[in-house]
Amino acid sequence: MSYQHLGDAQLTYVADMAPVVDPTTVPGQLLGNGTGTIQGPGLNGTLRWSFFEEDCAWDPGLLQQDRKESSDLGRSVCRTYPRGVIETEDGALLQFEGQGFALRRDNDPVWIVGSTVRFVTDADRYRWLIDVLATYDGTFNERTGTATWSFHAPNA
Description:
By secondary structure, the protein is mostly beta strands. The protein has a single domain, classed as Porin (Beta Barrel), CATH 2.40.160.20. The chain has no helices and eight strands.
């Protein structure tokens, strides 16, 4: 199966932002919420997202200026459940939900992330995404609260 590149997202954690979805409807615990942009051959627009996780050893000093270095964080793999909404430049709304994993290597604040993604939309131009399982892969920096995700979908 071959995949097409939909776009690259730049995401930023936003403190005190309300969740994009009801946290009681998603497995795991809410890690945070934020905003971002996506640019690419298939999707261009803005994002609002919420990120849920299970069994992650996130840095306890996440996003704190006065954090102390921790030598016991080590290697970690956890389950992730990203949720969000993309508003495209042409006015379409696409809801997405994912299920994936995050991996941190020894004491590195940058996590490697990946997920299978399901889209839901009423927009005719993007309805084909309802019938495919897309993916994203990228990174999340727990010290800066920033992430990069690259979205892909199977060729029709």
